[in-house]
Design a protein that fits this description.
The protein has 40 residues and is α+β, with helices and mostly antiparallel strands.
C-alpha cells in the first residue's frame, strides 16, 4: 500500500525483489499485466 500511496502522490516508485525469484502473490500468478506474458 505504501508504494501505491507514494506513486499517487507523484513520487517515482521502484520495487526491488531482494531474492533471486519473485515472491509474495506474484509467485502465485501465471500471467502478468499488461502483456499477459507467462510469469513462470
Amino acid at each position: 500500500q505504501a508504494s501505491l500511496d507514494l506513486a499517487t502522490a507523484g513520487f517515482k516508485v521502484y520495487m526491488v525483489e531482494k531474492g533471486p525469484s519473485i515472491g509474495g502473490h506474484m509467485a502465485q500468478l501465471d500471467k502478468t499485466f499488461p502483456t499477459n506474458d507467462c510469469s513462470m
